Amino acid sequence: MSRSDREERHGERRLPRRQLALRYVLLLAVLALTVGPFLWQLSTSLKGPGEDIYRYPPSLVPHHPTLANYAGVARIVPVWDFALNSLKVATANVLTNCAGAASAGYALARLRFAGRRSALVVFLMAMLVPVESIMIAQFLTMRELRLNDTLLGVVLPGCIGAMNVLLMRNAFAALPYEIEEAAFVDGANAWQRFVRIALPSVRGTLAVVAIFAFMGAWDDFLWPLIVLSDQSKFTLTIGLNFLHGTFADDQRLVAAGTVIAVLPLIVLFACLQRYFFRGVGEGAVKG
Amino acid sequence: MSVRRPARRTRTRTRTRTQLPSTPWLFLAPGLLISAAFGLYPFLSTVAHSFTDARTLTGGRYVGGANYRELIHDAMFWTGLRNSLLYVLGVVPLLVILPLLLALLVRRHIPGIAFFRAAFYTPVVASVVVVGLIWVWLLDDRGLINALLERLGFGRVGFLGDPWLLLLSAMAVTVWKGLGYYMIIYLAALAGVPRELHEACAVDGAGAVRRFVTVTVPAVRPTMALVGALASVNAFKVFSEAYLMAGPTGGPGGEDTTLVMLVRQVGTGLSGRVGYASALSVVVFVLTLGLMLLVLRASRREDGA
């Protein structure tokens, strides 16, 4: 936690007992509302065919928990191949976004050159155009490039988000100039200063860009739906929609599929949430 | 001062020696290329296509404003526009207010609060497809929510059968999924509100509600405007929730079609009407931008008052 956070914690007067209890009651209620549906889905996915999933009162805990539905869903659709496709797309998106957005952001914030303003305007404009209003043209562009129905075609349009470039630019702009001054005097060139000095100082923002890039690619639905048609190239989201359309009858299988899609992301987020919340706070303060 | 000046001169000299004029452009090239190729170029080509009768596999001729004229007489366009606008009206007020209350709830550093913050963010992390499928299951005729409603004596409700209820259900899912996202934005804004204001107000004997209205709301008003603008733009462009809950064609008779669903439906596939879908896309773009400016302007006027 940042220093201001800690100061705030010390400055806080302690809550009276009753208020504190009320707060926890409210927190638990919201917890039930936000996380409850996921638990219900998990529970459904673990219930065997012998268990009535429609019974009342509903039971959250399966009587004879089984992993059969996970094997079942994999027999019907190649869900692990879908997951691998999603992983490839998401990993590529993280790498390209971190590298591309950081280097462009560095140039915009730290290098002086004619045309800097125009470059900034290009990114601002790219950010303002909603993806939804250019997807048909993007689809045609991909077709011209013969990249339709490929994972590369899924990755390319979002591989260096204009929003991320601007985020990185703000992070670099907030660094004090003294940080690079010594390297300057020693004759380090722009690339050396970028990689060795500036980049390590904006790790927080870089982590936020990485998390958003991974989540964005892993969760994206509309663009893969448009660009992919061959089932062997499907990402998890498209595959799940397909599963839902075909086998809506067995809710246990659909539930197993959704758990496969969401669990890795929840685990990843749980591991990184500390950096994430800190990074978001950092960005907000530096604005 | 006299010590600094020589140092500064050295710096300018170093720069001219180490930085080639092309260096910044090498840093920028990948980002600029991608933004131009997959952002600006498709935008210009969308505008150009909107004046042609192009299809997926054929180039198309210039037809002037024919696509736009057809749009005005297309009942599906008006249904889509109505649903997209209803979505904004239904979703935005809730997404401006509820996440603020949530942020106030998780703001205090009480034991375990980090867990609650992260847990409340879970719906944001999950894919909209996962979220859609979870809620389709919860709202099913034989699902959990109907079982509870029946138990409480309300009887079953066909959430997914009736076009209006389906639209409302999709809105509820959007709000549910968005809460955590906007909560984080508010949390960052609340960190900037000086505590002294609250304390002074408390000393004067103001209760929690009073302090919320006189201190918190004015302090986070710019953030509320930002959240309002973001939420309106996202609500207007809604696709996935409606698509997953109502199906690709927007339910029976397309009653639950939104504008973006229409763009996808009309413009893709082998016989996709690229020209017409492009005209629809231009309308989506203009209305999105207009909506954003409207919300930002309205909130600024309130600010001045």
UniProtKB/TrEMBL annotation, chain B:
This is ABC transporter permease. It is found in: Cell membrane. Signal peptide: none annotated. It is a multi-pass membrane protein. Residues 81-295 form the ABC transmembrane type-1 domain. Belongs to the binding-protein-dependent transport system permease family. Pfam families: BPD_transp_1. Keywords: Cell membrane, Membrane, Transmembrane, Transmembrane helix, Transport. One of its GO terms (cellular component) is plasma membrane. GO terms for biological process: transmembrane transport. The keyword Nuclease does not apply. The chain crosses the membrane at residues 20-44, 85-106, 118-138, 164-189, 274-296. SUPFAM superfamilies: MalF N-terminal region-like, MetI-like.
